[in-house]
Each structure stands twice: as structure tokens, then as C-alpha cells.
Amino acid sequence: QVQLLESGGGLVQAGGSLRLSCAASGIVVSDNAISWYRQSPGMSREMVADITAGGSTYYLNSVRGRFTISRDSAKNTVYLQMDSLKPEDTAVYYCAFQSWRIYWGQGTQVTVSS
Fold this sequence. Notes:
With 114 residues, the chain is mainly beta. The protein is globular and about 40 Å long.
């Protein structure tokens, strides 16, 4: 049974930082691609960052240079370090794993005040 549990969201002022965590069970994060998505009210869910099994990373253009995805194999956890946050980064952030279907975590709210 695959389970993903996000944490680390909160309220931060513009220019601040947060680190999101995605603790996984049922899969080995270092053997799989794990993604971070976000969804704002009235908007479609969009992929923010992705890390492959080989360690390659992908970033949405609007977050490249400000967000960093990484993983800790010992903790079986994927992180999203978010720096220089902007009000437009406000959203619910989800981690995801896709095999024959996509598994989502419950999400964690990030709110950036101006």
C-alpha cells in the first residue's frame, strides 16, 4: 500500500522560505520518480518539481532557481525547499508517485503573504 504524507506547509511572508517533506511508505523513493504539484483555488493542479530515480530534476519555469527538490534515502523522504517565496506560490502542495495509477498525498497548505 503506497502512502505519501506531506508536512511543512504554513504561513510565510513574501521573500521567506519553507521546506516541505513527503514521507513515503510502500515504495522506495530512491528507486522511483516523485513529483511535487500544487493547486490554487480555481486553478488546475500543476507540476512544480520532479526528481527521477536517477536523480535528474525538473522544475516549473516560474520556480526554477527558487525551489529545490531533493530526497533522503535513509528517511525515504522527498523534500521541496522553497526560497524567495512569492504570493503567487500560495497553493495546496501535493507529492505524487505514478505507477499504473497516480498516488497523491493529502496535501499541505502554503500561504505567502505580501
